[in-house]
């Protein structure tokens, strides 16, 4: 299976400080991956590079079957090519219903003209309902989003990203601030989402990562320190020293 995203030998410095140091990373088209590492390890900068927000000083970032050079694409083009990113804080429209938030995301996916001349169709309604089902909010469709719990808002935002049909979804600390039940649901949701697309989850919570049950990449000082199953990486003496043993 060839990679969907292939990052090779990437480095980035901020004022002479190497935040990312010769980092290489690959993910397949239907793979779930957890990226962990202590504060300052380079996780956010890594995601910034993939989305085009930060440009590396060296290295390559290739995308898709045609190995397109992501470093030559604008942030907007990278998003159009199928890279979606979910930030830590949910940014749903609180005064709109769950249904309308999902519908809006669906319309946005089709570009400005479509938004302007939009005519709601039964197919769109069905797609919104399917998305709500996927994120576990089928029974909340007509609630105002502001009334949802923190966890439900996070799922809604994931649903809004899924509406845009990303091929790679980058998710930043999805479990932060969630109850245990919400975490469990989030695990299921992300595992399900990764059946048909690549999903990278940046997370601090080791128990959550364990439940994801996927390959783990440990970053430290801007490089990959270890990679493998959660059991493999948590038994790695270097990982224990820099991350778990602190
Ligand atoms: P993480 O997300 O793993 O906590 P970051 O990617 O945010 O790590 O940061 C990696 C390192 O790069 C840190 O030491 C951070 O202080 C530094 N850094 C990140 N962004 C900038 C920036 N814009 N300017 C200067 N230093 C930065």
From TrEMBL:
User: Pfam family of this protein, just one?
Assistant: BCA_ABC_TP_C
Q: Which SMART domains match?
A: AAA
Claim: Ubl conjugation is one of the keywords in the record: no
Q: Identify the domain of life.
A: Bacteria
Entries under InterPro entries matching the protein = AAA+_ATPase, ABC_AA/LPS_Transport, ABC_transporter-like_ATP-bd, ABC_transptr_urea_ATP-bd_UrtD, BCA_ABC_TP_C, P-loop_NTPase
Q: Which CDD domains match?
A: ABC_Mj1267_LivG_branched
Would you tell me the protein name for this molecule? Ribose import ATP-binding protein RbsA
Provenance organism: Pseudoruegeria aquimaris
- Give the organism's phylogenetic lineage: Bacteria, Pseudomonadati, Pseudomonadota, Alphaproteobacteria, Rhodobacterales
């Amino acid at each position: 299976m060839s990679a969907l995203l292939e990052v090779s030998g990437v480095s980035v410095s901020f004022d002479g400080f190497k935040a990312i140091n010769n980092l290489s990373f690959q993910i397949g088209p239907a793979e779930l991956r957890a990226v962990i590492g202590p504060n300052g390890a380079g996780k956010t900068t890594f995601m910034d590079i993939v989305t085009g927000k930060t440009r590396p000083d060296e290295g390559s970032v290739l995308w898709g079957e045609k190995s397109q050079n992501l470093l030559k694409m604008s942030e907007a083009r990278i998003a159009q090519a199928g890279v979606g990113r979910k930030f830590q804080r949910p940014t749903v429209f609180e005064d709109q219903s769950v249904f309308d938030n999902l519908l809006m995301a669906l319309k946005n996916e089709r570009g400005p003209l479509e938004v302007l001349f939009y005519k709601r169709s039964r197919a769109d309604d069905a797609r919104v309902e399917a998305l709500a089902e996927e994120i576990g909010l089928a029974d909340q469709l007509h609630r105002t989003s502001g009334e949802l719990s923190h966890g439900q808002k996070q799922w809604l935002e994931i649903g809004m990203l899924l509406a845009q049909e990303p091929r790679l979804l980058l998710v930043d600390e999805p479990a932060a601030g969630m109850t245990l039940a919400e975490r469990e649901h989030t695990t299921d949701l992300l595992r399900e989402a990764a059946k048909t697309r690549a999903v990278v989850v940046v997370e601090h919570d080791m128990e959550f990562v364990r439940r994801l049950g996927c390959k783990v990449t440990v970053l430290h000082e801007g490089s990959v320190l270890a990679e493998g199953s959660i059991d493999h990486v948590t038994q790695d003496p270097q990982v224990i020293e820099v991350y778990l043993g602190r």
